[in-house]
Every structure is written in C-alpha cells, then in structure tokens.
Amino acid sequence: MRFLEDPPAASPLHATPALKAVAAPPDRLAAPDKAAMDAHLARSRYGEFTLTEAIRPGWQLDVVPHAGYRHDSYVDPRTGSRLPALIAAVSSEDLFDTFLELLAPLGETCDVVLESSHECSHGHIDHTREDVERLVLESVLWEYEDLLLNDGCTGIAVLHPELSLEVQLDEHKLLVVYAPSRLPFEKILKGRGLMRDDRMRFVSQGEHLHTSHARHVRQFAELAGRLGAG
Q: Can you point out the beta strands (E) in 15-172?
C-alpha cells in the first residue's frame, strides 16, 4: 500500500504499508552510552500509551508513541485510483482485542496472509491461506497473541475473499484498514476511545528498532502450519 505522504510502492492489497523509517539528521546522531540506551530500549510506556515488545522508537524520539488514528488512502500506482484507509496506533493492552474486533465487518469467511521478515534483509515472505472461517481463525490467533503482538518480524493481513476489504496488524503493531467505506471500522476505533488526528505520525515514520526472538521464529512456523498457510 502507498499512503499519501509516503514514497511510491507497487504493492498489492495485503502488503505491509509503506511507512518506512527515516534517518535522523547528521547533527542529531550523538550516540547515548550503553546504560542510557539500555534504559531507552527498556522503556515501553509513553504517558498512557504502552508499546508491545516488537518495536521501540529511536533514541532521538522523532515520533513519540501515542494512541489515535488517521484517515489515509491507498493510491494505485498504475491507475491513480484511491482506496480509503485507516491507520491506528493502539496501546498494547487493547491492541489484540481491537484487531479482532476489526475483523467482524469482513464477514464469516476470509483470506489470511502471514508476513515474515525473520530471514529477510529486505521485504518479507508471505504465507497465504484462503477461505478460513473467521471464528476459527480468531480462535487460532488467540493462541499466538504473544507472536502477533511482540514479534517485530511478524505481520498479518485478513481480507474479504471478494471485496476490497482488508485489516492488517503489521510488523510495527499498527492497525491498518482498507475499505471503500471506513464507517464500520471507524465506529469500532471510536468505541475503543481512539481519537482521530489526520496529522498523526506513527513510530514507523521515524527512526525505530524491531525486536524478535528465536521463540517467535518457532511460533510463526507453528501458526503457519495450523492455518495451512503456504
């Protein structure tokens, strides 16, 4: 997906959104000592917002994490047509429940794409499963909450099998929705107490670090196997 303020990308639906990290200006690159950096990486809470273990903002704090959402659009690089989108940052204690609630408008059956960058220096590998009962999918995903929330190399996209409807929980642990009508999804976000701010920036748009562990590689393989995703 390509958002209005981001560089072009020729990705189809279900691709990780192109919210890329940017380098800090040269005059701001003074490195902290080890103790200060360790303390920075250990910090997960910013005001009332708590990050998962998957990602940390860079030392310079180009973007201070906070909850909220904004309107955006996917722009087809070939035709220039636009598909409305929502991007949301949700505090970790509410993130998984909000993700599952956003799946309801997709209907009873959906397609799933698991995205892994565990062994990729660039991009990610997709594992796809079509025609999954949504309630069955949700039951399986509950067993892998740790992976989906705390692994900075795992993302998931759930799609309507026929319509242009998609919900992502990406590697940055942002929620991204693509839909001709934002209304049913926006109602869910507002019901969760999230405020709209179309000038909002996300942690992925500043310097940031992804984290992963060996257990997450194993969990990802297990999840792909459980879903029959190849």
A: 45-46, 49-50, 55-57, 68-75, 82-89, 109-116, 125-133, 154-159, 166-169
